[in-house]
DNA sequence: AAAAAGCTGAGGTACGTAAATCAGATTTTT
DNA sequence: AAAAATCTGATTTACGTACCTCAGCTTTTT
């Protein structure tokens, strides 16, 4: 039978109130008594029943999600997952507030973080912009003792408790290995298509990709990245230009959210031989392109997993509990046409 | 504020006991009263507080895991994950009993399932052997109203509530696509290495693999599968023989747990040109082989995810709650040397 | 018609914890 | 030395649900 506070009280020869004060680090217990209670806790192997405690406290976890306003499918999906989490709030004892901030602007993010630091949130998750002022704001959140998780995009050298997102350097490296292996002995140029290299995840993916290309596939020339701002029309124009300029392109790595511009180009005037195309983010579009052979592989991060993981971690941190590390590692999903969900 | 049973009682003009009887489908409520209460429940949007209910019931979920006694790394890992779940039992309100059965023998599995059907378990998870007698035993478990999840290996046409494992046909197809693409224009033979084709997962992986090879890579000849019974020494002998017999082997797909026999062969006398090697199951061995280039890709299923998912699903079924489908889908992890955990 | 048996509803207690209130002892202040 | 303030510990209530006991009413049995 699991020991309860009553068992501890009996074992230590004190009342429930005293046990409660020791457990919750409240004042009003003499040193000697405190030690006796702590010994009883240790020797009985007591662990707090979080469900009962939450019931007694009528606890809800007020969490804040700071999300960039961004039209790309991934961010829309992320937002949808947060909304599903909100729909589950009733049964999960959470209350999730979403703060919208303009994408890529650190000022608004800083303001949102400072609002959180001043409030009574039990935790905050945010898509980081990797800038010094954001780092400082994160420091203030941490100083306020509020658990903090970065989502999708990490904040380097910051006191965040956890990062719920993929390793983007590894993702880039993986894309490069797939690209190189799929091309085999073919010769030609590779063009990376990014949203903006000001975004940390895009830069990291490109770095990882470039490194492996240089190291393992030196016979393939890596062109400078095309920055399409994840804007379908701009991407369409830029990619069209590049393909005309370099008829010997044999590989395309779309590491951002520019698929809506890229795919029409590929389908409109198919190159011959077809280039190897690797994209990020599984959507209806990319999934269809995978099936019909327009593209070869999709790397994906599961927004639902990221959101649920962020909430689990925030809860655990708020309760001072450990997290199951293996469970919270967000994996890089690799989809070929054969293992689509 | 979330409505409680008190709100329902007040709204329907009845007592708590009546609400309780309606909620828990107990007898002793007049039809008209029952309808009034149900209307109140619906109109207030009441959802039972599972935590409070479990507290009141002092509920523990007695689950049974039926695991095959098997020395291979994957099964050992699965067992370890079940043990970690047992270690968390205290905080998760579970009590997990493990029943060991000899691997691949349906009789012992049937006996274990019948024991479960006769007992008071709140759910059972088992690694299925796909045989008619097992299917019948599963029927008896279902008839006893006990939630049932197949783990790692599914049972076709059975009344299991859920399958916590990967789509093995898709895994085989994925391996074939990787194999074919990695080989590019190379010609030669491909040899599949299985544990036993009596096991459903192995058979399915091979089927998926063979189909894609035949369809998309007809220039590569698929040799008959080598059945190594996941026995390192046997595998070493058999693979050695096959490689001698067919000097033009350019691809090896190890779809079972024979890696401990295969890898030494590959490392001892490296073929030239090196064959493309794709394995299942990420272990210390396969991970190292990936890093040093002996092998090219590893397909993996995460045993920890499978066990945790099985428990979540069993709990949900026991409580009559819905499951988050996307969360419970076990994915086929593809590891290259670049995205190792 | 009286007694027994069912039906329906009310009230109270328990689950494990948190937290407010209360009581007694000790120390400090006047 | 008396009064006030501070410590320390005990008791009690509440959280939302389950379930047990009991009371009043209706129906059936004798």
UniProtKB/TrEMBL annotation, chains A, B:
Transmembrane segments: none annotated. SMART domains: HTH_LACI. Pfam families: LacI, Peripla_BP_4. Residues 3-57 form the HTH lacI-type domain. GO terms for molecular function: DNA-binding transcription factor activity; transcription cis-regulatory region binding. Keywords: DNA-binding, Transcription, Transcription regulation. The keyword Nucleotide-binding does not apply. This is Substrate-binding domain-containing protein.
